[in-house]
Amino acid sequence: MSKHQQNGSHDHVSSSGAGPTCKVLDQPSMEVLVEDPSADDKSVNSSRIRRLEYLRRAIDCDCQILLLNMSVAPDGQAGSVSYRTFDCHRIFLATASEKMETDVFKNAHFNGVLEMDGVSPESVQIFLEYIYTFEVDSPLVALKIIWDIFNLSNAFNMPELMSAFFEKVKEQDWPLDDVIPAFDLAFRQCGMPELEHRCLDLIIPNAMKLINDRSLMNIQLYSLNYIIQLWMATDAVPRERLVLLLQEYQRANGLNFNNAVTFSHFTKIIQHFPGVLLDAEGSIIQ
């Protein structure tokens, strides 16, 4: 994007043969000095709206983001592949980050199409709008896509995107269905203490609801271990139900003696429950 130059005004002092003379001017009133505080905001908003119009209406676009989506069949197998395109402008993408500049400007093989997968269309739309306006201000913002925003932010080296998204999403009421995955993200990455604490504020009092949340089957072992210890320490969930949770997690993730490294971490969680036994394959038996 082109840089705007500021034109400074220069005072001209007239002189006579007797040498320069200086005239003392009356000090201007504060009404003259103080500009309209909303003027800059109006200018910024005008620029923001224009950029969004160029994006949303695909005015003079010269590249596309192609989002691949693989559907999942009822039996869990991969289904059909669908595509969604987002028209955009190379110059805007290139200024987003050094990584993006390399991908769309310096890559001699770039054909005008940037392929993405593994993220939601909503997150890509927010991603693009942030590039164009440096703001996250969309009705599409929701806790359920925080992983997608994190992945886009990380992939293209745009940490400001993640920060701006979190500032917006924390203003919302968070659905319980989305809290466990968000906590898993915070616990995996560290450096996200506010997200972690906000999630814990919901995980503790809603333990008996969240214990049945299927998203628990998809979090990493370290996150699961932390949640289980937390629920044990607060007596939020009966011991028997926590053991059942471990059984469900073990079946869902195929954890047994054949997975030497992962299973060793799993057995450390089992040690929280003296008396729990394993069968010949390493499965929990009550």
TrEMBL record:
Lineage: Eukaryota, Metazoa, Ecdysozoa, Arthropoda, Hexapoda
The name this protein goes by in its record: BTB domain-containing protein
Skewed-composition ranges (Polar residues): 1-18
CDD domains, A to Z: BTB_POZ_ZBTB_KLHL-like
Organism: Drosophila madeirensis
Pfam families: BTB
InterPro entries: BTB/POZ_dom, SKP1/BTB/POZ_sf
Region (Disordered): 1-21
Annotated signal peptide: none
Sequence ranges assigned to domain BTB in this UniProt record: 61-140
